[in-house]
Amino acid sequence: MINFNTENKKLEKFEQFRDEYIKLIFNNELDRALKFILNLKKMNFSIKDIYLNVFRESLYKIGDMWENNEIDVGDEHYFSESTKIIMSHIFVNEFNHEENQKNIICGTIEGEYHEIGIKMISDLLYAEGFNINYLGTNVPIKSYMRFLNKNNFDAILISVTLKKNLDNLKKLVKSIKKEDNLKKMMVIVGGYPFYEDSNLYKKIGADFFGNDIEDIQFYLKYEKERNLKISLFFI
Ligand code: B12
Questions:
Q1: Collapsing DSSP states into helix, strand and coil, what is residue 44?
Q2: How far apart (Å, rounded) are the C-alpha atoms in residues 106 and 188?
Q3: Which residues of 35-49 are buried (b: 16+ CB within 10 A; e: fewer)?
Q4: Does the pLDDT of residue 231 top 50, yes or no?
Q5: Which residues form the B12-binding domain (predicted)?
Q6: How far is the CA of 219 from the centre of ligand 1 (A)?
Q7: Which of 67, 151, 210, 228 lies 20 to 30 angstroms, CA to CA, from 76?
Q8: pLDDT in tens, 154-178
Q9: How far does the centroid of ligand 1 lie from the alpha carbon of residue 115, in Å?
Q10: CATH assignment of 103-234?
């Protein structure tokens, strides 16, 4: 049973952490911001909590501040780039990675420059042992197809934030689904437009969408077990 009091206290704490993190970055104290984050880890907050409740929530807050003209676009760029630097530090120094043999490719669709969401998902899956090929932003459909045909992937995870980029995503998924050698690869999509419409992924032609890391972990695990059962059946 969920204890709402404990949950509320935890959320209040995270709001304080988020605000302290924003303050440190805007004071140009990147070093102290990094130490602050590493200290949360020492206090036994999980990386997932830090990623989702401190980084993600601070970025959402920055987005609101930008929309309300409280900060300039330069401040917003500076904040997101600083967060990427800190995430890279955590990725290199704080993750234990024990490979589980599943190969995943992650990136954003052509036209899409919002990458921190998919980088978070990709980092957290890496921490779970998935072998990650991270391609970053604005990847042309042709390049995805070339990359997919050269390698053997269990799943592709693509992120879209701006609705205007959904057409490109649909084209990519269509190209993937046409290829016989990619039939077994799971196509997973996510990002802002998928929060609004839980059936959108079907219209796009994808196999699954995830709002969060838990959905994806569960789906990939379930698929793994399903594949295992299928292969055992044929032995
Ligand atoms: C940082 C930022 C930028 C940076 C991005 C830097 C970078 N390297 O990523 C830059 C400066 C490039 C940028 C540019 C623009 N931005 Co901007 N940006 C943001 C901001 C502040 C934060 C985004 C972010 O990192 N969020 C944190 C991450 C962790 O959250 P997330 O993306 O939602 O990801 C989570 C889930 O969605 C999910 N998820 C995401 N992808 C995937 C994929 C899969 C497969 C799965 C399973 C899950 C999943 O998992 C993540 C963890 O929970 C948002 C504000 C906001 N509310 O999000 C605006 C925002 C997204 N931007 C916006 C706009 C309008 C723009 C511009 C058009 C501005 C302009 N006029 O130039 C351009 C467009 C650029 C482009 N073509 O892509 C609007 C979008 C409005 C809309 N809904 O259409 C927002 C909401 C700001 C606002 N309040 O209006 N932006």
A1: coil
A2: 10
A3: ebbbebeeeebebbb
A4: no
A5: 101-230
A6: 24
A7: 210
A8: 999 999 999 999 999 999 999 999 9
A9: 7
A10: 3.40.50.280
